[in-house]
Amino acid sequence: MPIALSSPEARSEVRRAVADLRHLLWFRAATLRRPRAVRVALAVLALVTVAAATLPARLIAPGELDRLLRPGLVAVVLVGVGGAIAGGGGRELLARDPVSVHPISPVTDHLGALVLAPLSAGWLIQTWGLLGLVSAVGGPGALPVGVAWVVAATTLAQAIGWTAEYLRRRRVLAWLALPLIGLGLAPVPPVLAAVEHGDAVRRALVAVLLVAAAALLVVVGAVVAVATARRMPRDEARRETSHHAVRPLPSSDLAMLRRIDRASVWRSVPLRRGTAFLALAPGGVALAGGLDWSMLALMPGLVASGCVLLFGVNLWCLDGRGLLWRETLPTRPRTVLLARAWVLVEVLVGGGLLTLALGAVRAGRPTVAEAAAVVLALVVVVAQALSAGLRWSAAHPHATELRSARATPAPPLPMVGYSIRLAVATTLTGLLFGGLGAAGRLDLMVPAAVVLATASAARVVRAGRRWSDPVRRAAVVAVVAG
Amino acid sequence: MTGREPSSTVATAVDVAGLHVRFGTVEAVAGVDLRAEPGQALALLGRNGAGKSTTMRVLAGVVPPSEGRVEVAGHDVRAEPLEAKRVVGYCPDVGGLVPRATPWEHLQLSARLRRLDGWEARGRALLEQFDLGAVAHRVTAGFSHGMGRRLSVVLAALHEPEVLLLDEPFDGVDPLGVEATFGVIEDARARGAGVLVSTHLRDLAVQVCAEVAVLRGGVRLATVSAEFMTGDEGARAYRALLA
Question: What is the distance in angstroms between the Cα of A468 and the nearest Cα belonging to chain B?
Fold first, then answer.
C-alpha cells in the first residue's frame, strides 16, 4: 500500500534502510579478500581526487579551459544517465540471489546503488575531469559547485535508471526515460555562470540548491525503486524461460565450445545490454560530435576496455557453477581457453568496428596513415584487453552467474581497479596511434603496433600455460563453482 | 551408441590408495583408500567436511590429488587425465550446469567432446525418464534445484560411463526423480560399471548400494555391507561411527 512520504511509516522505513545499508557496507568491508590492498586503493583514489581538484588551478593559465566546462558538465549527466538506463538500477550491494532471502528493502537497494556509484572508472574519470575543469576555470572557490553538480547528477542518473527499469518491467521501452535527462541539462547555464563569474554568495547559493535537488532526487529515486521492485524483472525472466531451437552438432570441439560460450554471452541480460550500449554509445557520441580520425583512434580503446569489463575480467563467470561439470569433460584445457578468448575477441572487435563505422560517417576521408592508425589501435587494444582479461581471470576469479541485469563479473572495488588500469593502457595506446596517424608517421606506427601486440601475445601465451596447470585450474573452479 | 564400450579387461572400476588432498594448510582428504569393482555400487557416507565431495572431485579429474594413487577404469587421473575423464560420468554436488545453455546443448557438448555417435535417442530417453523432456530446450538458469539435480544425473549417465560418480544425486529431488536415479544406477551396474554414490541420505544409499564406506575427518573409517547400515540398527551403527 502506498504511504505518504512524510508519514511516520515512511520515516521509519528510511531509518531502517539507512541502518540496513550500514550493516551491508560493514558486511562488504568485513568480507574483503585483501583489505590492505583495498585501503591503499581507496587512499590512492582519494589522493587523485584531491590532486584533480586542486592542481589545475595552480598549473593551468586562466581562460585556457573555459570552453570545455560546458561539455564537461553535460558529459557527467549524459554518461551517468546512459549508464543507469542500461544498468537497470545501478550497482548491487550484494548479488541478487543470495540477498533475496534477506529482508532488504528496495530503499536500501537504492541507497546502496548510490553509495557504490562512484566505484566505477567512468564516474571517477568524469568526476576528476570536471573537478579539474571547475578548479582551472573558477579557482578553488568554485569547487563546492562542482562537487554539488556531481552529487546532483549522480542522484538524477540513479532516479532515471529506476524509472527506465520501471518502464521496462511494464513492457515499455526503457529509453523512453531518456528525455528526463533534460532535468539535468536545464541547470547547466546558471551553474556555468556561477563557476565562471560567480561571487562567493552566488556559488554558495547554487551549491545549496544543487544539494537540495540531490536530496529530493534521492527521495524520488527511492519511491520509483519501491514501485519497480513490485514488478517482475521482465527481461531476466524472459531470458531464463526462453526456448532455443536445436542446431546440428558442430564439426569440432572448438566450435562446440565456442557455441556454448557465445550463447552464455548473448543470452545474459547484463552482457547483451552492456555490449549494445558500448557498441552504440561511443559511436553515437563520435557521430554527433563529428570527431576527426585522430580522435577516433581513441574510440576502440574506450569500447574494448568497457567490453572486457562486462565479463572478460572474470571469464569463467560465463559458466558459473557449471564450470565444475565442464571441467570433467575430456578436452584439452587450451581448447577451452581458446574458445573463451575467441568469443571475447568477437565482442571486442565487433563493438570496436561498429563504433568506428559510426564515427567514420562524419570524419571525412582518412589518409592512409590515419586509417592505419585506427586499425592498428583497434588491433593493439583488443590484444591488451584480451591479455588483461585472461590474466585477471586466472589470478582473481569470482563466483557470479550474471543472472541479474545489474550483476558485474567482480565486486565493485576490483572492478574499479580493472577499469582504471584498462582505461590508462588503452587510452595511452589510442593517443599514441592517433598522434602518429595525424603526423603521418606510418613508419613508426607499424613497429609500435608490432611491439605492443607482441607483448600482449606473450602474456596470452603465459596465461594459456597457467590454465594448463591442473592445480591452478582447480583453484579457479573451487572459487567460481563454489 | 557410445564412442567407447566398457572395457571388460578392467579389473577395478575405482582404485584409490593413500589419497591426500591439501588446500593450502587445510587437509581435506587425509589418506583415503577406496575400491569399487565393475558392477558394484559403493555408497560414501559421512558428515559435512568428511572429504566425500573432494574425493569425488579427484575421481572426476577436477581436483588433482596431492598424494596417493587414484585410478578409474585402469587410468591414472594424474597421468592420463583425458582418458580418465572419458570413462567417468560425474554428477557434482552443487550446481553443475551452465546457466545459459539448454539441457540439450549440455548433452551436445558432452557428446561432441566424448565423440559419441547416435547418442540422441538415449539423450531424449534419459530426459524423458527424468521428466525433463518438456524443458530440453530451455536455458537452465531458471531451473529449480531438483530439476538441476536430475539433469546433472542425466549428464553423468549419457555416455554410459565405466565409472559413474553421483555426488548428492537425491538432494531436493522428488520421489519420481529418486526412482529414475535408482534406474540409472541399476543400469550402470548391470552393464558392468562401477558406481560411487555420495549422500547424506543413508536410507536411500543402502537401497541402491551393496557396500557403504564411511568417511570422517578426511579418512575412511570403515567399509561395511549395506545390510549392516539398514533400518534402526543401521542408523545406530552409523551414528556410532560418526560420533
Answer: 12
